[in-house]
Design brief:
mainly alpha; 14 helices; globular
């Protein structure tokens, strides 16, 4: 991997990490008005339509062929856009006022989850340096969130069920991200668009079934309209832009490297809070620096191994 390709991959992974850092504060507002099931369903219907339009414009109608992979598309679409969307935001809602912080911290566990899934499924025992990079980055992210006060993390025990839901949602996104490797020869846009559409169909089926059986209540048009700005952000920024660039970046860097950027999510959340007038402490600034150092360190190690010929081209 040459330097330009590496920088391109980093850029594509950085964009969604920043976008998703703002996702949880936005959802904290939206979840006060709209339940996570209907919000997620509406979000991905529009995101799927936009991505499908982009796919047809840029790659033509021929790429709409499923090539016998409909069940894979349904599985990864459901895991990524039903599993992640429903579990994560239900957990955030159940966590109450601290939901955005709890969710952003748990997202930082994705690199560790990716390493464990790779180890379990592909028998790829990680290099010690990879574990070191993950734990350093995670430590920095936790320092940003807690500002040196561990009690803020301990308090999540009060919402253990909600935290487990968020963790399962994060695992779903790890599986979805790794699923891109199952579609060799497909562009990231094709994988993104078709899995989003299949995931949206699954969302519609789940929500309509739950509504028919009385588990959910269909929101009014007025209530949906009151979350208009939040929906726009979640559809265009945290949806279309973030998911597409995420899949591109992970195709370049590979999920075990791309997932490290999820450590930036809680950092971004704190940065947004600072713009909103929340004071950012010195320890939080130190945590941001630690995260950056960990990401740079991992990439430097990967580059050195490449130069040494450890990895085959």
């Amino acid at each position: 991997m040459n330097r330009n390709t590496l920088l391109t991959g980093i850029t594509y992974c950085l964009i969604p990490a920043l976008a998703w850092g703002g996702m949880f504060p936005v959802m904290q507002v939206a979840l006060k008005v709209l339940d996570p099931f209907y919000f997620t369903t509406i979000r991905y219907i529009w995101a799927g339509l936009i991505l499908l339009g982009m796919l047809i414009v840029f790659e033509g109608k021929n790429v709409l062929r499923l090539e016998g992979k409909s069940w894979k598309l349904l599985f990864f679409g459901a895991v990524g856009f039903s599993g992640f969307g429903f579990l994560t935001f239900v957990g955030q809602q159940l966590s109450g006022p601290s939901g955005a912080i709890i969710a952003s911290v748990i997202m930082a566990l994705m690199p560790l989850m990716t390493t464990c899934v790779n180890w379990a499924v592909h028998k790829r025992k990680p290099k010690p340096s990879t574990f070191i990079s993950i734990f350093i980055a995670l430590s920095g992210a936790l320092l940003v969130i807690t500002n040196g006060d561990p009690s803020l993390i301990v308090q999540t025990k009060e919402h253990i069920g909600a935290s487990l839901l968020i963790m399962l949602g994060a695992l779903c996104w790890v599986i979805y991200t790794m699923g891109g490797s199952q579609f060799a020869g497909w562009s990231p846009l094709r994988y993104t668009a078709l899995t989003t559409c299949f995931g949206s169909l699954m969302n519609i089926l789940i929500v309509l079934s739950a509504t028919v059986f009385g588990a959910l209540t269909m929101p009014s048009a007025e209530r949906i309209g009151s979350t208009g700005s939040e929906l726009l952000y979640m559809i265009l920024i945290a949806g279309v832009l973030a998911v597409f660039t995420w899949n591109v970046g992970n195709k370049i860097l590979k999920p075990e490297n791309g997932m490290l950027f999820m450590n930036i999510v809680p950092v971004t959340t704190v940065t947004i809070s600072a713009f909103q007038g929340v004071e950012v402490g010195r320890l939080q600034l130190a945590g941001i620096l630690i995260v950056i150092i960990a990401l740079v360190m991992n990439n430097l190690i990967q580059r050195q191994r490449k130069e040494a010929g450890e990895y085959a081209k």
